[in-house]
Amino acid sequence: MYESQRLALKYFTAAIALFGVMIVAGLLAAYYYIDPQILYNVFDFSTAKILHIDVLIIWLLMGFFGAVYWFLPEELGQETVGLGVAKVAFYVLCAAVLVVAGVFIFVQYGTSDEFSLWFINQGRKYVEAPRWAALGITAVVLVFMYNVIGTALKAKKITGVVAVLIVDLVPLFALYLISLPAITNMSVDLYWWWWLVHMWVEATWEVLIGCIMALALMQLLGTSRRIVETWLYIEVALVLGTGILGLGHHYFWIGTPKYWLSIGGLFSAFEPLPLLGMVVHAVYDSGVHRMKATNRPAFYWVMAEAFGNFIGAGVWGFMMTLPQINLFSHGTQWTVSHGHFAFWGAYGCGVIAVVYLALQKSRSVSYMDGTAWKWSFALLNIGLVGMAGALLVSGMAQAFYERAIGGSTLQAFIQAQSSPWFMQGMYARFGFGILFAVGYVILVYNLLTVGRREAVGAAVPAAT
Amino acid sequence: MSDSTVSDPHFWRAGAISTTIIMVAVLGILTVNSLGAIEAGGSHVPPYTVINHKIGYGPALNRDTDAPTIGGEQLLFGKRYTPTEAHALIRRGKLVIQSRACMDCHTFFGNGAYYAPDLTKAWLDPEWKVWKAMTQSKTRGEAMKRFLMHPERYPTWARRMPNLQLSAQEAEAVVAYLKWMSSVDANGFPAHFGHIEKND
Amino acid sequence: MSSVELLKTAGLLGVLVLFGGGYGVLYAVGRLRRQRSWLQGGYACYAVQVLIAGVLVVTSPLAVGWKLLIVFSVFAYLAIPPVTWRYLERTHHEEGEVYDS
């Protein structure tokens, strides 16, 4: 095993641990809707929410880093360059996450000055981490880029996948710098903030997970490089072709000119089309290569990625992307429903697939299967779909009662939040959240134990 | 397109590169235009001194949604702010909003968290009439300021706003921020503000 | 848009894409297994998608431009699965990876 792959396993461990922290914070955040009296003025909803969404970003990023550190040396036939610095960066990142989380939990907020922004809370969604930590994350990303580019240079080799990865890392890094300034004008603040958030999760992250899936498929199914690279380029063209101006679907209501309603609506309406192609491709792979798949959980999680992405981002997104609908749905639980489903389908499933692939190799399992992974797969996916469905009910109720009927005032908000459909959705979401959490516990158990005992890893494949 | 071209990864690589370049270029042009419109004093976003004026919201020519209106003088906290003072006050307001992570309970232009109400048109909310009485305030600004400084004294409903230790100056800055923000033309967001749907 | 129209239109838009996905999946399974029944299921899904698009075009309060977008999308949904499949088969064939059911 390459040293880089040992570092990858560390990143995966941290990622899966933070996945658990995200779930705990999420369950707490969900519970406030059911019992708003808990922990009033001691630990409020905002703190739980910050932990939930910031840890989401960090665990997924750690998963991506782990995946690249895992695949890179084999892809280039060369140990990753700069691993000493990379290992330090990993521990620094973990320590920073702990400190930032500790400050969020125990200090929570400061006064309205630069000190608060530098050391306590920047208060911009997903990038609440204080500036010192944001700079730290920037440094870690730079180390990561150095590792990738340095390895390609040393190997004097660059594959198509690695080339796409390197080119993608440049905007990924540059966009993160938007987390640093404090902009007075909310319209301008949100204009740039959406460059960071949208161009991360609907552009550069899509390309990044595309590269990771390309590397994973070559290993999982033995697909030829030429095929994988062709499809990666097609995916990049379609995703960026629709997603770059699809950014406009965040510019409907922030004070920007009206032409964004047409441009944003049009391009984001096209965004599901490449995802349909991905689903067809996934079915093709499942049939054609099924005989060659030696890692059943990884294979199933890759399939979940394609379908989850199409339904969570495509179907759910299309429901609410036209401006005539979005006027009512924007900033409601409908958005939350879409966000949960899309993040899971597009990224969560992919990271889990890669972890199983890495474990197969690190534990030398010729054929990875078992029972526990099926339970966690079922519970996590049923839990997630259940949450998204419950939030959809609440969100539609909110759009209906608060916005369409009630006129979007404070009273309308209160009435909608108290309505039976809304509240039932909140209860159901919490219930499915518990299911999801149980699925997570089984996932952890499975990841810790799979392949370690003879019986589990020794199942004979149906055919080779 | 010949068979060999379509099967060649380099063809698709060229496609990916050219598509990206074109889209980024268009986005760049639109960004320059949009930033001009949304800077304070631009076509969609009033200057910060709008806090010295009465802000309304109603039907507008050639629009299928309501739009903000800026009327005559209506001073905030009895003071007429110069452009520099207004900018400093609004800047402070934004620092309060960020340092207290308001966006992690509330939404601004619909962005943020969904536990607490959207604040885009909070300055114009009809509820403040009631709150003026509840907080024993003469003006809307005063009512908002009192609420923000001691939200625990004025329970809203089952969900209550926590006390975030706002000083009087910080509370005034936030109120100014919300007044300015309500004057931004958000293309009709939030939907049907202030209008209740009639049942046919 | 009224409150009821809102939910109806949004629901139909989501279901439009869902049936497009259903068509894609069933079409792909049908080509994989070389069984007409799956392909027919796929075409049935597509027929439902066309029906939903028709309902949206005729009854929804969307402006003309958006209705045209829906019509165009429905044509794109028709083409994407067979074009994708054909290209998948060709690229794999060229690499010597042929599927024998």
Walk me through the structure.
Chain A has helices at residues 3-34, 45-76, 83-106, 114-119, 131-155, 160-176, 186-221, 225-246, 259-270, 272-288, 296-321, 323-329, 333-362, 372-405, 410-418, 420-449, 454-457. Chain A has 464 residues and is mainly alpha-helical. In chain A, helix 2 runs antiparallel to helix 3 and helix 2 (45-76) runs parallel beside helix 13. Chain A is globular, with a radius of gyration of 22 Å. Chain A starts with a helix and ends in a 7-residue tail after the last helix. In chain A, 64% of the residues are buried. Chain B contains 6 helices and 4 strands. Helices cover 85% and strands 0% of the residues of chain C. The mean pLDDT of chain C is 92. Classes of the chains: A mainly alpha (464), B mainly alpha (200), C mainly alpha (101). The interface between A and C is large, with 41 and 43 residues.
Largest sheet of chain A: none
Spatial shape of chain A: globular
Give the CA-CA distance, first to last residue of chain B.
Answer: 58 Å
* Rg from Cα of chain A: 22 Å
Strand content range of chain B: 5-15%
Fraction of residues in H or I helices of chain A? over 70%
Secondary structure tally, helices of chain A: 17
